[in-house]
Amino acid sequence: MMRNIRIEVQKILHLPYLLLGVAGIIALCLTATGDMNVGGSQISIFSLLIRPEVTNTPHTAFELWRAGIGGWLTVFAPMLLTLGYMISLSGERQNGQIRFALMRSGKLRYCISKVCGGALAGGIIFLIGYAVFGLLMVIRFPSLNTLPVKEQEFYLMGSTLAAEVVKRLIGAFLYGMMGSLFGIGVAIAFRDKYMLICLPFMINYIYQQVLGKLASDCMVAEKYEKITWIEAVRPESIMNKIGNVVAQVDVSGMSKDDTRQSEIKVYDKNLEELSEKQMSYLKFDIQSTTIDVNVELWKVKQDVPVEVKYSGTVKAGYYVFQVSSTPNTISIAGTQEALKQFEEDGDKLVIPASLVNISGKSSDYEVKVNLEDLLPEDIELATDISETALVTVKILPLNSKEYEIPVNSITVNNKPSDTDLVFDREKITVRILGTEEALENLKEAQIALSIDLKSYSVGEYEVPVQITLPDGYTSLDTVKVKLKLVKAAEITTG
Q1: pLDDT tens sequence across 56-76
Q2: pTM here?
């Protein structure tokens, strides 16, 4: 019997099938959710592996290794684990070897050797794949030991890191065996491809429900050691679903630093609060979920100027006309000591030249900058301020200049008599080319702008602007202005 089982394992673990299965397990682990961004979108472990800058949340190797068992893995793993088995069984059916095997060993011994060999091979494939995935995490991410002791205890639930690793490896082997068993059963009992696709979904659901009930019963009975074993073989534990642990406090009426009580709330990675049933799976290392929160009030400083610096040189024949930031002032909040130091350092937020590179540019250049990243420690943007600033560098050809002309100076021709005109802005930009001396002498009043509304009726339009300049000057751009024509009675004053 043992010889037959060993032969079956060797056939299923044929090198191409082994490599394909292991590679597939690793790839599926990498597709699991490792984090969530501020918008609630999932960030895969693969994204964290190649682009750690996609999130500001630090992650440990053990945390992501554990998170790897979930998602698409639980759906497609049974197919990968039983690939070699299905090919081997199909070959035996086609060439007639199955009849000789049945005659030689008997139906019972044949079935037992097939099932045991397939299960052992599936466990080995899953174990190797999951172990290699863990090694990738260890190479790329810091160890769990780098976290504070309290955070380590949160992940380990009273166990040790070495014990948890051993448990999860054993759990991976057992899960691989189980995944192979129902795949083997399907391959033996069914030949319909749709059954092979649909059954993993159903069995995975049943599997999670059973383990969830066992974990809940163990939690009620305070058998925490058993819970760690259950979580080791559970495809996606409640711990993997936790996104944030929040303690909200009401600061209304506070005028100085104080301590207030708050109830702990746990949210999943979709920013939804955990249910009572899900909360029952968790073990807290404190007596009560009501905790004391130390509230430190920060002072607010308004109208802090934003200064933009840039690097590089524009294309030959062009020059930087203007550099601006939107917003150009911000409000910040921080400790008294931090704000004092901020004032001593210049009392302004400087966008460094390294973030605004205009090398080789020959047209206007825009770049978005995260202001939060530029603030010193213990200083943040006020809550009603956007974190992003839009930096605009206006670049013009040499011997040219930009003028801001009020729209009320535009001459309007052929406006329908029963309508009124509303512009979408107060000024429009006109770029003029001329000699340096001529541009210095050019006045805004000499720039004549006009529009013709002969072909327009009630509605919203973008109308070309006719620009008339003195001799020696040329307009660089085709200028249009957005406007609305409404019936005279529709305009009200307020």
Answers
A1: 677 888 888 888 877 677 667
A2: 0.45
